[in-house]
Amino acid sequence: MPANPPKRSTYRHGDLRNALLAAGTELAREGGPEAVVLREATRRVGVAPNAAYRHFADRDALLRAVCSAAQSRLAVVIEEEQDTVVREGDPSAVARALLRAVGTGYLRFAQTEPELFRTAFAVPSDQESATSPERAGNTGLTPLQLLSQALDGLVEAGVLTAERRPGAEFLAWSAVHGLATLLVDGPLRGLAPPKTDDLSGRLLDMIDHGLR
């Protein structure tokens, strides 16, 4: 044996799962959910395919984990957008700006990371999985929880009545997700940024006015 055997540079000992998840996420970023293949992930990490089965039973298991990682990245983008909001001044204006940042971040993620956006919703899920810690951003909140928090802020600021609050996250989410899907996979795909920015702004205006 050589005195100083070469060290594997692709992952740290005991962290193979995260290395495979990172490789799978990059595959998704490059080609969407269809590109997430367990054997290719192991090849990129530099281990034998059988080594992956200790952490992911099959390709579907890896895809589910990548889906959660993609939603976590979506949460981070939303958080980044909210970080730009000035938290001083009129509480109602701040609350509305924080809600708008959720939609802006959501649409920005869809347009700048279209394949990762497609992957984020490639696996059927429910309300429970939408609040899973694996899908959380830096604040510990998932995209759905960030939206819910912003809507609760509207109630606290007196912008949205408590009676109209229940279920509002699903109405706002469906509107923004619908436009995002049209921009990524629908007839609006390929529109130039000035047009997409205008549509995004008008949709967020409609949500804002509708809630109030």
Automatic annotation (TrEMBL):
<dbReference type="InterPro" id="IPR050109">
    <property type="entry name" value="HTH-type_TetR-like_transc_reg"/>
</dbReference>
<dbReference type="InterPro" id="IPR009057">
    <property type="entry name" value="Homeodomain-like_sf"/>
</dbReference>
<protein>
    <submittedName>
        <fullName>TetR/AcrR family transcriptional regulator</fullName>
    </submittedName>
</protein>
<feature type="DNA-binding region" description="H-T-H motif">
    <location>
        <begin position="37"/>
        <end position="56"/>
    </location>
</feature>
<dbReference type="Pfam" id="PF13305">
    <property type="entry name" value="TetR_C_33"/>
</dbReference>
<dbReference type="Pfam" id="PF00440">
    <property type="entry name" value="TetR_N"/>
</dbReference>
<keyword id="KW-0804">Transcription</keyword>
<dbReference type="InterPro" id="IPR036271">
    <property type="entry name" value="Tet_transcr_reg_TetR-rel_C_sf"/>
</dbReference>
<dbReference type="InterPro" id="IPR001647">
    <property type="entry name" value="HTH_TetR"/>
</dbReference>
<keyword id="KW-0805">Transcription regulation</keyword>
<keyword id="KW-0238">DNA-binding</keyword>
<dbReference type="InterPro" id="IPR025996">
    <property type="entry name" value="MT1864/Rv1816-like_C"/>
</dbReference>
<feature type="domain" description="HTH tetR-type">
    <location>
        <begin position="14"/>
        <end position="74"/>
    </location>
</feature>
